[in-house]
Amino acid sequence: MPTTQDIVLRPRFKIELSQSNQTILEAFQKTKTTQSDFTVTRIDDHVFIKFPKHKQHFWSPQLHLEVNEIDDHNCIIYGLFGPNPTVWTLFMFIHFLVAGLFIAFGIWAYTNWTLQTSYAIQIGMMLLMAVIWITLYLGGRVGKSSSKEEMIALRNFMNRVINEKSSD
């Protein structure tokens, strides 16, 4: 899996390996104590790889891996890059709030239009909501681009753990 690909917002990938899922999960479990560059958390068949707290910033990504068993000697890894879940939830909440306000101002403007009263304020607020949404979008793009190097580092760490286990 080349690391020079363009990384998109919340990219997903899958890798098939000729090893059991427990072997891979144990390899990630072992890295908790053998390195300090990343924080590795394992819950059942899920592995979360993040940067330590002192290296994290607002847009710091994390890598979520789900290691599923195909048979006794093969497994498949589903990976998902994404921001901290708290940041993602806040970002989505703000998007839905802006969308809800846009719709509410649209209904209010339509009501005033049908009553043949002034609706300039409502149209102005709808335009403001559109500007806020565009600002949120651009902020997300800036956050994504500032995290690209960190996403590559997470992916390289994952590949290193998998490849070390493959060579055993």
TrEMBL record:
The chain crosses the membrane at residues 87-111, 117-138. Keywords: Membrane, Transmembrane, Transmembrane helix. This is GTP-binding protein. It comes from Snuella sedimenti.
